[in-house]
Design brief:
alpha+beta; homodimer; globular; Gyrase A, domain 2
Amino acid sequence: MNSMWQEKENRLNRSFQFTDFKEAFAFMTKVALVAEKLDHHPHWINEYNKVDIFLSTHSAGNVVTDKDRELARLIDTLYKP
Amino acid sequence: MNSMWQEKENRLNRSFQFTDFKEAFAFMTKVALVAEKLDHHPHWINEYNKVDIFLSTHSAGNVVTDKDRELARLIDTLYKP
């Protein structure tokens, strides 16, 4: 598990930063495709060049599960700041 | 101005709902292209089929300006729930 993800309040959280909105949204598009494939979707916030991602598993009672760790790992592979 | 946008705490806010993540993210992609073209970007939150959008103008001191009203109007034209 990448140490840049922090587990707090039963969610994995990591913040990502980019040069501008275009780069941030390009990243979000890649994450969206991976999330859809896994059928496991993030709670995420975007403001200009920042993307803040929160992961937890609704079906498990909103706690962090291996599905979240797997999605976090895949998201990290997509991050090219 | 569409009355479904609410002005509170110096931001325009509207929540959008879709059948699933795929539809929600397709909408976000359309909004992203319009925002980039206007060079005016939303603060937004997505969780599965919901998109919550907040608009304010940073360069004007984080208040609602005509740029926000214009982006809100364009976003409404993209919403096909």
